[in-house]
Amino acid sequence: MPDAFGAPLYGPVYAGIGVPATFNAVAITVIDDTRPVTNQTGTRPGSNQGGNGEVRSVGPGAYARIPELTAAGIARDDYIDASLSFNGRTWTVRSYELRGNPNGEDAGEVRFLLKAADVG
Amino acid sequence: MADVREDILVRLHAILATIPNVRSAQRNNGDITEDQLPAAILFDGDEDTDDASDASMRQPYRPTMVTMTPEIVLAQQSAEAGSDLTTLRRELIKRVLTDTALNETIVKTGRNGNGAIRYLGCQTDFGDGRSLTGSLLARFLFKYALKPDEL
């Protein structure tokens, strides 16, 4: 299957709204995907939402193209706990979501789920 | 200053990291990736007392007994996830219930004091991912003295 998503689709999007980023001192391009979230304290995944109050915050995230990361020598094992800087802030990768496309898992995007760099 | 609750949780987290084959030991972080499996995640437990039935003349800063029920999630992804989780559960229970620091120094069970450590049970949950993905939630009970004047 020809590359239907890399250069034809991701290329213009990342060229238009992508921002320069530094991933463990390696230069890449990401799309800032920081979203508002409400943290329900006192709950865990799968549990009923508790009544301990709400904390409004942001869920910092960023999209990157896996082929670009691979070409830069960044492997999947490097994602967790990596330092990622863009748009004037520095974050730590706490988790990630793989966003495959019809060209395959390794040809898609990854959405990095971030936390403030000073959070342990 | 002595905060038994925090001492227990810190020790439990340390114990999780000693379970054979566990790649990631977390505390209150339930958002992990498959690359971190097998994982062991400690969730801080609820704490309860029986003091609602003890509205006596006892000074409020006198010691009282409390129970805490932390939960530990073991997660694995493999064709034999069930068997793997059973093995991890066995190693977890053995380590928690026989841990010298927990029994003799922190909770003070048996001849060391009137604390207690109990394994309450577990629940399992399985689903499909890249491979069979399962988790096992193990519940423990810790009974210990809360001494307000030492906090």
Keywords:
heterodimer, A: 120 residues, two-stranded antiparallel ribbon, 2 helices, 49% strand, B: 151 residues, alpha+beta
Short description:
The complex is a heterodimer of chains A (120) and B (151). By secondary structure, chain A is of the alpha+beta class.
Give your account of this protein's structure:
The complex is a heterodimer of chains A (120) and B (151). Chain A has 120 residues and is of the alpha+beta class. Helix content of chain A is 15%, strand content 49%. Chain A contains two helices and eight strands, in the order αβββββαβββ. In chain A, the strands form two sheets. In chain A, strands 1-2-5-8-7-6 form a six-stranded antiparallel beta barrel. Chain A is globular. Chain B is α+β, with helices and mostly antiparallel strands and 151 residues long. Chain B is 25% helix and 38% strand. Chain B contains three helices and five strands, in the order αβββααββ. In chain B, strands 1-2-3-5-4 form a five-stranded mixed sheet. In chain B, a hairpin with a 3-residue loop joins strand 4 and strand 5. The relative contact order of chain B is 0.22. The interface between A and B is small, with 11 and 10 residues.
* Major sheet of chain B: 5 strands, mixed
Report the β-strand fraction of chain A as a percent range. over 45%
Return the structural class of chain A: alpha+beta
- Determine the strand fraction of chain B and express it as a percent band: 35-45%
Spans where pLDDT lies below 50 across 5 or more residues of chain B: none
Low-confidence stretches of chain A: none
How many angstroms does the end-to-end distance of chain A come to? 43 Å
How many helices of chain B? The count is: 3
- The N- to C-terminal Cα distance of chain B equals 5 Å
Helices and strands, with pairings:
The complex is a heterodimer of chains A (120) and B (151).
Chain A (H helix, E strand, L loop, with lengths): L5 H12 L1 E5 L2 E7 L2 E6 L13 E6 L1 E5 H6 L11 E4 L2 E13 L2 E13 L4
Chain B lengths: L3 H13 L7 E4 L11 E11 L14 E14 L3 H18 L1 H7 L9 E13 L3 E15 L5
